[in-house]
Every structure is written in structure tokens, then in C-alpha cells.
Specification:
Elements (H helix, E strand, L loop, with lengths): L3 H5 L8 E6 L4 E8 L5 E2 L8 E5 L2 E5 L5 E6 L8 E6 L7 E5 L19 E4 L7 E7 L19 E7 L13 E4 L5 H11 L8 E3 L5 E2 L2 H13 L4 E6 L16 E6 L8 E3 H7 L12 H8 L6 E11 L9 H14 L12 E6 L5
Parallel strand pairs: 10-11, 10-13, 11-12, 15-18
Antiparallel strand pairs: 1-2, 1-8, 2-3, 4-5, 5-6, 6-7, 7-8, 9-12, 13-17, 14-18, 15-17, 16-18, 16-19
Amino acid sequence: MATKNEARSKSDPTGSVWRLARATGETVAPVLLFGPDGAIGGVEDASARRWTLRDDELVILADDGVAKLAFSGGDPTSAARLVGGVVGGPAGQLALERIALPSGRTIGLPAHAETTEIVRDRVSAKRENLVIIRAGKGSLHRDWARDLADADRNWDLFVSWYDDADPDPTDDCDYLAIQRDVRKFAAFHQIFETRPDFREYRQVWLPDDDLAVSRSAINHLFEICRRHRLDLAQPALDEASHLTYPITRKDPRFTLRFTNFVEVMCPVFSADALAVCIEGFRSTVSSWGLDLIWPSLLSGVGRIAIVDDVTVTHTRPVGGLYDRAAAFAEMQDLLRAYGRDPERRAEPVVFGGCFAGTRL
């Protein structure tokens, strides 16, 4: 097997997304994302766990490290199609076809404008982390407990304003954009398309505007994620919160729990995880289903956790601002685009964690 250094010296397909198909055109696996260090995301089949480069071939390995499929016929960094088959079998039976990561646009949702005007930018030197909140006139970000001096914040605040009313000009934020005609994750996609330099932030938190929290808790959340090298995480919900998934409720036995699920309500992404997942934000309306896809995309790449040492209060009932039937249909279509059976969704699971009292 080629070593990592040997693989890096050749054409590197890291970050590319492919559809695996038979020669007849039939889809075998709709999404294979070639992640860093040979990880494959987007597919749950044990026969496609990792990739490597051998000579002029791109090879897919099973979870036991045995080569299962091999493809050639072009530079994997630029080729639109590679042809191959089962190792030891006839060539030309399978193909890898380069695709974009499935998103709302893929499943027929309307496209939005791809640029966003940032009307306030007060940042001369970026802090380490970024908080982007979709905010309206009832947003709680103005009420976040100010138990931390600005000089001690480890995060900048970006307000993405969606309300028909104009934002308060005295709102204490570092960045401001008016994004009225787009929903939450599609708005985030626009922001990062407009400002690619935002990807330089180490971590990004994307909370809803109905969460009560303190500034020091946000600092602590980012610090825990950094220390534990988490790629996808969220704070736990306290006992007063409106709840959708029981797994997100604070478990007092732990400081954090490693899981296969983080809710769209308040995810924290590392820069690397955001780079993997962000294309899926495009054109999304309800965001339903995104949180069921992220763990698969990050499979073998990142560490996922719910941080019980930091809690927020979710103050409003879930799903009040959109058509739930349409949101459910969007989720089903998105899962199908990733090759998932909507009727057999994986249950959120805790794999382990750090017990309360563990030094963080």
C-alpha cells in the first residue's frame, strides 16, 4: 500500500465527490467523498471505507484494509470519469463519475443568489472562532449574558438578518448582512461563498436565534471543541428547553459524549468539517435531513460530540416557521440523494464520553 507521503506526492483526490456506477449506468453508491488521510465519507458500505493511490490507479479499500476496487483512466484531481472494477475481476465493469455534493438544488429546490453584501465589518484582526446567527427582531443574541469582556472573547459575531424590520443599528456585532429571502443554511452557504476568508476561522458555531446562552459559555464551548479536536459538536440542551431529540438533553454524568448525531439547531464545525459539509447547505429550505447526513460525510474523518459541560436553553417550540410536511418531504428527498432509505434512518447513539469531573 502506498504510504501517506507517497500518496500526497501523486495526484490527490482529497475533497472530491463521486458517484459509483455500473457500466450500464445503474448507481451503486450515489456519494463517495474522498476525505483527507484516505478516509471515505458519504457511504456506509464496509467494502468502501478508505482510498489510496497505487501506481496509476485509485484504489478503494474495505474496512480490513484489503483492496476491493481499482480505477484508472485519468488524473483523479481533474478527471470527470474513471473506469475500473473489482480487483482481480474484469476491467470496465464500474465507473467513478465526479459530481457535486447533493444539496437542496440537487433535489429540485430553487436556487438563491450566490452573493451576500456584508454591510458591517468591524474586524481588523480576526479572533480564532466565528459565531454566525440568523437573527430577527426577537433574536436572543442581544440578551446573551455579558459575563465576558470583549477583549476575552475567542469568537467574532456575524449577524445574518432575516426580518422585514431593519436591524437595530446599535446591535453589538462584528459583521452584519441582510439576508431576507433565503433560509438558514442556504444563507450560510452564501456567506462563505462571498467571504472565502471566513474559512480561515478555526471553528464556526451556527446557532438558531432562540437559544439563551452566555458569552463565557460560548468561549468554553469553542475551547472544549479545540482541546478534544472535535470536528462536529453542539452544546447540550438544559431541562427548560423545547426538545426534539432526547440525546441532545444534558446528561449530568458527562462533560461530553461522543455520538453519531449533532442537531441543525446549533452545530459547531471545525474548519475541515465545514469544508466537507458546506456544499450540502446550498439551496436548503428547512435544513431537515442535513444533520442525518453530516456524520456519514465525516465518517473516518472527524470526531463528533455533544458537549454536556456547556448548555443552552432552546426557548421556542420546534418547527414553527415553516411547513412541516414540506420539510419532511425535503428530508426524504435529501436522504435518497445520498443513498439512504428514509424509512430506515439510523438512531442517534452515544459511543462513550468523558465523565463529569474529567479535566477539560
